[in-house]
From TrEMBL:
GO terms for molecular function: DNA-binding transcription factor activity. Residues 3-58 form the HTH deoR-type domain. Keywords: Repressor, Transcription, Transcription regulation. It comes from the Bacteria. It comes from Yoonia ponticola. Transmembrane segments: none annotated. PROSITE patterns: HTH_DEOR_2. The lineage of its organism: Bacteria, Pseudomonadati, Pseudomonadota, Alphaproteobacteria, Rhodobacterales. It holds the Pfam family HTH_DeoR. Coiled coil: none annotated. SUPFAM superfamilies: NagB/RpiA/CoA transferase-like, Winged helix' DNA-binding domain. This is DeoR family glycerol-3-phosphate regulon repressor.
Amino acid sequence: MSQTIRHPEILEITRKVGKVTVEGLAAHFDVTLQTIRRDLKDLAEAGRLERVHGGAVLPSATTNIGYEDRRRLNANAKTAMARACAAQIPENCTIFLNIGTSTEAVAHELCHHRDLLVVTNNMNVANILSQNRDCDVIVTGGTLRKSDGGLIGDVTTNMIRQFKFDIGVIGCSALDLDGDILDFDLQEVGVSRTILEQSRKTILIADHSKFKRAAPARIASLAKIDTFVTDRPVNDILDKRCAQWETEILVAGA
């Protein structure tokens, strides 16, 4: 099979599963590891994929990738982070979970917590936590974003201001090396800022891939976050800044 045939199929597989490995693709196409490495190198140079250790993922971009692709991307890391995040959430408290695949993973880990009041603008989170009989769920109003089941806009932010949460858990689309938390949608940014304002404790959950991406809208600095849950250690500069800001960095699995 020629590379002109393999390349489109490699891209299609990556869109479906989020990450491909050299070994997996070699077995799939019955070719050598060196052949697949050349294919991934060519696709990366063309901007179609982004090389990572052992394989490739969808490229970083200034526009967000599809929600199903995001749900599959770094799925194991998200599960580990979600467990670490859920361990920070006691029973008998009020929390907010916002839009995102990472916060959905947290919702799964909260399915056995007791006496929770969860407020969310994420329809997927509400459906997940409907399985927990010891959890009351309040869904904010707002404009439904059909691409991901998120509720955004002024109605959403106005309702959030009616609460004071023990813990607010947010995700993001990107992080820059200065520690700024970034997103694509200005309305979602407004919602995230309001969550931070209305929470006694704030948690950001974001995997290492967010440092490889760019997004145009700023939510806040990590200085506004109490606990940053991630899957890999951050660089030394940001680690020192977080220490100065008294922002705890919790590396899942460490």
